């Protein structure tokens, strides 16, 4: 029997947050996630990371889920532990509010692999509307500080990425945003806003459905130690097991997910209630590329987002 290993593990170190963004499934005004929120206990993160390290395989440990990772009081320890395993690459997406100079120095000296900032546009006023309780000036200062600490150390890492959600209040700032950051950071994506945050809400989806790449690549672990089906299982309605009950790799090769993989291979996308309503299966396909000379970049359009690269 083939044993599958994920190439990415989402470890939700905490589901708590200090902001309330417009589209956020857990903390936004239209939130619908009802599961418990809070920090992940040490017994879960230590067990999970030690097992991932023991696989001795290249793996991207994504230390955020539906919360703000910097709110976990032991995040530095968690990342240090992860980075003690040579094949684990680690990073996180953050709202940037708490990523101060001390954090930047830590991240650069640890050789953390990547940090993504969620920044929605260039105007502090609209930013405060779509990312309630945020302070764009402070977030930009934190981002620039991180870039300058990295440059001063002549380091390549962390790889710095930006993700902007094109909410209608900020959509007209896309070009300004890209122009402002394109030559400073490593990567920019502009994501479509999903409203309500269900899994079928994108403007262009390829017509021929394929087996979902996430079932073979992404393991998702919620802050309470449960393994969800994939990143679309926001509320962990389809838990595959819990850390500590058995090894993660057994959970991820257990009967439920194996059955679902087989269904996808056989072209049955309707029997599972979550897959039936989802378009995320297509998100690793670039369905259009274009060049915009005016802002000097090439665009790669995927289902949920567009990636911008300098020409
Ligand atoms: C849920 S957050 C968690 C990590 C961290 N708190 C942050 O904001 O980066 C992950 C990403 O999802 C984005 N996001 C939240 N709600 C969204 C929505 N309705 N549509 C598209 N992206 C959304 C956020 O802007 C952020 O980039
Ligand atoms: S900062 Fe992230 S987790 Fe917090 S409300 Fe915004 S999108 Fe949600």
Strand content: 15-25%
Low-confidence stretches: none
Q: What is the count of DSSP helices, taking H or I runs of 4+ residues? A: 10
Approximate shape: globular
Average pLDDT taken over every residue: 95
Main beta sheet: 12 strands, mixed
What is the total tally of β strands?
A: 14
Share of helical residues: 25-40%
Q: Which ligands are bound?
A: S-adenosylmethionine, iron/sulfur cluster
Radius of gyration: 19 Å
Straight-line distance between termini: 45 Å
String of helices and strands: EEHEHEHEHEHEHEHEEEHHHEEE
Trace the largest sheet across and list its strands.
11-10-9-1-3-4-5-7-8-14-13-12
Question: What is the structural class?
Answer: alpha/beta
Structure description:
With 311 residues, the protein is an alpha/beta fold. The strands form two sheets. A twelve-stranded mixed beta sheet has the order 11-10-9-1-3-4-5-7-8-14-13-12. The protein has helices at residues 42-54, 75-83, 101-110, 124-130, 136-152, 174-181, 214-217, 248-251, 255-265, 273-276, and strands spanning 8-11, 20-21, 59-62, 88-94, 114-118, 131-132, 159-165, 187-191, 218-221, 226-228, 241-242, 288-292, 297-301, 305-310. Strand 9 (218-221) and strand 10 (226-228) form a beta hairpin. It is globular. Bound molecules: S-adenosylmethionine and iron/sulfur cluster.
What is the fold's blueprint, element by element?
Blueprint: E1 8-11, E2 20-21, H1 42-54, E3 59-62, H2 75-83, E4 88-94, H3 101-110, E5 114-118, H4 124-130, E6 131-132, H5 136-152, E7 159-165, H6 174-181, E8 187-191, H7 214-217, E9 218-221, E10 226-228, E11 241-242, H8 248-251, H9 255-265, H10 273-276, E12 288-292, E13 297-301, E14 305-310
Parallel strand pairs: 1-3, 1-9, 3-4, 4-5, 5-7, 7-8
Antiparallel strand pairs: 2-6, 8-14, 9-10, 10-11, 12-13, 13-14
The protein binds S-adenosylmethionine (SAM) and iron/sulfur cluster.
């Amino acid at each position: 029997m083939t044993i599958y290993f994920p190439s990415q593990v989402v470890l939700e170190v905490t589901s708590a947050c200090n902001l309330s963004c417009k589209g956020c499934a857990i903390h936004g005004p239209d939130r619908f996630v009802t599961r418990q929120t809070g920090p992940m206990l040490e017994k879960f993160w230590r067990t999970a990371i030690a097992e991932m390290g023991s696989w001795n395989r290249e793996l991207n440990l994504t230390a955020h889920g539906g919360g703000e990772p910097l709110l976990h009081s032991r995040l530095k320890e968690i990342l240090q532990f992860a980075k003690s395993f040579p094949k684990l690459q680690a990073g996180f997406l953050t709202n940037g509010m708490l990523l101060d100079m001390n954090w930047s120095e830590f991240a650069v000296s640890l050789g953390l692999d990547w940090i993504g900032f969620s920044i929605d546009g260039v105007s502090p006023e609209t930013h405060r509307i779509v990312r309630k309780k945020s302070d764009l000036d402070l977030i930009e200062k934190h981002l620039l500080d991180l870039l300058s600490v990295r440059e001063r150390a002549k380091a390549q890492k962390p790889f710095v990425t930006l993700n902007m959600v094109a909410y209608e209040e900020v959509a007209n700032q896309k070009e300004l945003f890209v122009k402002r950051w394109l030559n400073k950071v490593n990567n920019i994506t502009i994501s479509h806003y999903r409203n309500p945050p269900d899994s079928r809400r994108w403007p262009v989806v390829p017509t021929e459905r394929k087996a979902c790449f996430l079932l073979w690549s992404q393991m998702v672990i919620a802050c309470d130690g449960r393994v969800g089906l994939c990143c679309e299982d926001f509320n962990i309605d389809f838990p595959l097991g819990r850390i500590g009950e058995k090894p993660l790799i057994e959970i991820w090769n257990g009967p439920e997910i194996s059955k679902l993989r087989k269904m996808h291979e056989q072209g049955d996308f309707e029997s599972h209630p979550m897959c039936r309503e989802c378009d995320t299966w297509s998100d690793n396909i670039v369905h259009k590329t274009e060049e915009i000379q005016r802002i000097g970049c090439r665009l790669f359009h995927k289902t949920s987002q567009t990636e911008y690269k300098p020409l």
